Amino acid sequence: MRDASLEHLKTLIATPSPSGFEQPVAHLYRNYVSEFADKVITDVMGNVSACINPQAAMRIMYAGHMDEIGFIVHFIDEDGFLFFNTIGGTDVATEIGQRVWVHGKERVQGVIGRKAIQTLKADESKQTPTLKDLWIDIGATSREQAEAVVKIGSPVTLQTEFAALLGSNATARAFDNKAGLFIGGEIVRRLAEEGGLHPDVGLYALGTVQEEIGSRGAQTAAFNLAPHTALAVDMGVAMDYPLARPEEQGRLDLGKGPGISQGPNTNPIVLDILLKAALEESIPYQLQAYGDKSPTDARLLQTNRSGVATGLLSVPLRYMHTPSEVLCLNDVEATIDLVCGYCRRIRPDTDFTPW
Ligand SMILES: [Zn+2]
């Protein structure tokens, strides 16, 4: 990966964006794509769209959600401890003892506290804690002291940032889905610099908001844009670690390329074009099968207006929605190649009707 791109990915990860609080990351995405896109638009929901060939009648929508899971402060007690609920689905057991940033009137350090193990009753120590058992300690000794820097409604994010692991693997919080947003910026850059997009085909690479709480941004953006075809790129649950049972939901390994979803979430013509691009350009991929509705932006793209020819690509990710997600940067690169390959194969008259 070129150095400037890797630095951009690290910056996206270092910047907080819980659902509803995506503005700092939206700002970064806008700045990055404005160098390459013909047009960059931010809508009332906060979605950012980077477009190449805005005059074209054929429209491709790319969706990589900008938001991450997080927390929000909903009560401050008289001793200055903060109580909170989650933004999106978090794994509570992984949060105890984590350092957090509370994004209040200023950015404040905090830790997620719980009763000490020495004070847990026998039955308590066997149970998984719930959010009701946790609080955030910012070191304040009174509500007044806490309220000087934090307010009800302040968002909270985990502190863990990007770190390289062995090989091409890396760890961070919120690869889900800063990696998908990053891929959106890279496809705009690559298609602008290297060309290949048909002049009468328009690409709209969107950083969407609020995916983690129901793909609200993708829903409104797709309605506004009315694309003919759409690709959602999100993280896929890897099945290549100890105790993983691929029998339950299929195999997905780090380092073997993005998962390509097939089944009811995928338009068959989109699937054919994706597979053709992968084959012709020797891009690694893994087939995935999922029979229920997709828990990603793809679900709302597919059923937008009178229907959109949709595909879903999943970057394999270990330990999803924990402070230390792990992915392989080669899979991110392969996903960029595959999305570019798909876009270059769309023609103004491509018919997505499954006959
Ligand atoms: Zn996601």
From TrEMBL:
Keyword set includes Acetylation: no
Entry's cofactor comment: Binds 2 divalent metal cations per subunit.
GO molecular function: aminopeptidase activity; metal ion binding
Domain of life: Bacteria
Keywords: Aminopeptidase, Hydrolase, Metal-binding, Protease
Annotated catalytic residues: E211
Membrane-spanning residues: none
Protein name (database record): M42 family peptidase
Organism (species): Oryzicola mucosus
